[in-house]
Amino acid sequence: MLTGDDISEYCKKYKIYFLISVTSISLIILGSIYIYHDLIFTSLIPSLLLLSPLLREKIAKDEFLKALEKEVPIFSAYLYANSLLGKSLYQSILNLKDSKILKGISKEAMLLEKNVRMRGLTSTTAILERSRLHRKDALGRIYSEFIDTELVGVSTNQRAKQSLEKVMGEMKQNLNSYVQRSVDLSEVMFSFFLLFPIMLTSFQLAFDKSINLVQVITPLISSPVFYLIISSFQPSSDYIFSFSKKVILGVAGVLVISSILLLKYLGPSLTLMVAVLELSIVFYLQLRVADSLTSKLPAILDKISDYSRVGYGLRSSLQRVINSENIDLRTKKYLIEFLKNLDNEREMTTPSWTFNATLDLLRRIDTLGYVDTKVFSELSAIIQEMLNMRSSMQSNLQLFTVISAITPILFHFTLFSFSFMASDKYVLNQLVNVYTIVIEILYSKISKLTLFNFPLVLVTTVISIILSFFSLPL
């Protein structure tokens, strides 16, 4: 959320952005009138600069709310565990004040505590005030649910259970809404980044015998707008990408050397495509680790629940899970690290946010002492439901990954019949490759919630390189 210092900083920067943007837009308009009318298309960049403070504020707010939505299921499970010991909603939130993983809940805990201590409000009144501010998100609905049911005498345990069920139902609705909005936006993107350039280029080649570069790259200039639109309504990603200095330097070295070697043979656009492919490998490896760790969580939690039923504590249950033969070496390594650092409150740093948050929740449950085995089975069911919803979402968006993969083929063979009219085959080929890169990045953002989808980038790169040997004739 924004603070007074943030607003002051935005105001200072906005004065500079405003001056630069107004000057740039004025020069562009004058240039488009007296020099070259197509220059008006380039006014998009300074216009975005003019709006950047507002965009930054909107993005910061949206990111906070999306992070909070992601944290609510884990928080609900912790709330349920605390309710079995008779702890209130306010006490449960305060226990998470020091959390470095549930950052949104941690900030919420500090604000609630501030209202109670400095303003002298009761915990119920403070929660009621916060529920009004969060009336449109899941946390606000948990607040309202607790307050409303408390008035009619429903127990804390029952309230926590009801909140947990409602949170999962709302998460499913949100993901379904995201899929529908993604489908609608993907259709617009398909027309804007594929059909429009093909039609525009075809008409230019048919009537002018040349390519108007400024007009053709207009969709490319506007691609950041589509990226912001996607980011504004998609859920927060589960992936946490973190690289050591050695990895960063190694990847940078490979990118520079390979680009120098390939530039002469493949040209700038295909070299850029190969660079994106090399960069996506590093992200893909961490993405695979994150997906693997998250997929193992339900089975791990079910085993902990089974061991707990026969009298084992959390630590001994985890040790038995580690010693079992059904767990892979990578997951075992992280669980051993977690067990060793269980007492010093050290957060896990795996590529999966859900895995980190779940282990942090287990650590906090361990400090509670005795906890009913229902907590582990409920947490397992929550994560399994989350995995099922994500899998369903990705399968529903798979079509757009296929469209992105065949983009080079569509461009190549559609423009083939017009290419004999072109005065510059080289420019046409470069434009096709650049559009392919932009489309694959945007569709990766939609379907995988990340910019680099290695399988998709690999397919489009290989297809583009193969098609380059069957170049468009003049």
From TrEMBL:
InterPro entries: ArlJ-like (IPR056569). Keywords: Membrane, Transmembrane, Transmembrane helix. The chain crosses the membrane at residues 16-33, 39-56, 188-207, 213-231, 243-263, 269-287, 399-420, 426-443, 450-472. This is Type II secretion system protein GspF domain-containing protein. It comes from Sulfuracidifex tepidarius.
